[in-house]
Write a structure and sequence with these properties.
Strand order of the largest sheet: 11-12-13-14-15
Strand content: 15-25%
Number of strands: 15
Mean pLDDT: 96
Radius of gyration: 22 Å
Shape: globular
Length: about 350
């Protein structure tokens, strides 16, 4: 079919609306999870953990981090796997892939050599789960070799591998530590297994719905072809997103937010240059350790270098980096978002350094 022809403004508005960042906020966490398809877990909490920050950006003051914990641990309306929280309704889209894991020979060989260790872990969880990884003895036959942090961390690797295979699952957390149990006691019984090819097609469709517009490398052949003025090549667009009305707002985004996670897409559609600088030496940082991208309507207008100082009950702002000249309305909107963020975090003051 002929490609839809979009200007960049329309493409940006499609992307913003798809990510639930327009003026029409959702009202509950499950709606956010269903649309975004996942929340990424990351331990960095210079302001707040990324999953919570992404949820707050959509839901506002009505969101509390306990809601995400309850969804995973109590209500079982969401599940955690491989540093992602996904809606439990999507579990069937991943079961076939889990059953086929791993494809890599190195991992297959390690699992095969350690099959007695695998059975020990499953037997212990069956009798005593859920358990923290430190409560699981290491009975490995062959240690896990690595040049990184996983070197000889055999219990952690076995639990990760069994989770990837769908044999164990994360039942909850104690602080940041994961509680592991048999998958059959965490995942709903009788969840239909969607065949792998069909599951991948449906996941591509859901991914495109969450992004609105993307390259085929992200979403396969989902949606319909589109050309965006001023950008090379062809995009894929969610046809349901075309021609929809748009009302914008201002939002402070997590560095892991999917609106800006694909840096090339952010540059092509928004003229937005960004990278996460927490691994960059301090003297070489342009924007800050955990700089928050700033969305204003359908533009990404800058970054805010902010840190939550909980001891002093202060949201410290070390810099507001303007990619475009701020109008008085932009400045007022960013200030209001900083105040709203501080209030949500339970901090009493925004202090601009």
């Amino acid at each position: 079919m002929p490609a839809h022809r979009l200007d960049r403004g329309e493409a940006r508005r499609i992307a913003v609306r798809a990510q639930l960042l327009d003026a029409h906020r959702p009202t509950d966490l499950l709606t956010v999870l269903d649309r975004l398809t996942f929340l990424q877990l990351d331990p960095t909490a210079a302001v707040a953990p990324s999953a919570d920050l992404v949820a707050w950006t959509r839901l506002g003051a009505g969101y509390a981090p306990a809601q995400l914990l309850h969804a995973v641990e109590r209500d079982r309306t969401a599940f955690e796997q491989r540093a992602m929280v996904r809606p439990m309704a999507d579990l069937g889209l991943y079961l076939a892939e889990m059953a086929a894991w791993p494809e890599e020979a190195r991992r297959r060989d390690w699992l095969k050599a350690n099959d007695p260790f695998r059975r020990d872990v499953l037997d212990l969880l069956r009798a005593s789960g859920p358990l923290l990884s430190r409560d699981v003895p290491d009975s490995s036959v062959v240690p896990w070799p690595s040049t990184g942090w996983t070197n000889n961390r055999n219990v952690t690797q076995m639990l990760e591998f069994l989770s990837a295979r769908g044999e164990v699952a994360i039942a909850g957390r104690v602080g940041r530590q994961r509680l592991w149990d048999l998958a059959e006691r965490v995942y709903p019984a009788g969840t239909p297994v969607i065949p792998l090819d069909e599951a991948r097609r449906r996941r591509d469709e859901r991914r495109l719905r969450s992004l609105g517009i993307a390259r085929s490398s992200y979403v396969g052949e989902a949606g319909e072809p589109a050309e965006v003025s001023g950008t090379p090549g062809t995009w894929r667009v969610d046809p349901a997103a075309l021609g929809q009305p748009f009302a914008g707002r201002t939002a402070l985004l997590s560095p892991f937010d999917r609106l800006i996670h694909d840096r090339k897409r952010a540059l092509e559609l928004f003229d937005f240059d960004y990278r996460l600088e927490m691994y960059v030496p301090k003297a070489n940082r342009r924007w800050g350790y955990f700089a928050l991208p700033v969305l204003h309507h359908d533009q990404l207008i800058g970054k805010v270098d902010a840190t939550a100082d909980r001891k002093s009950s202060v949201l410290r702002v070390d810099g507001v980096h303007r990619d475009v000249p701020f109008t008085p309305a932009m400045t007022a909107a960013v200030d209001a978002e900083l105040q709203a963020l501080a209030s949500w975090l339970g901090l009493t003051e925004v202090r601009v350094v």
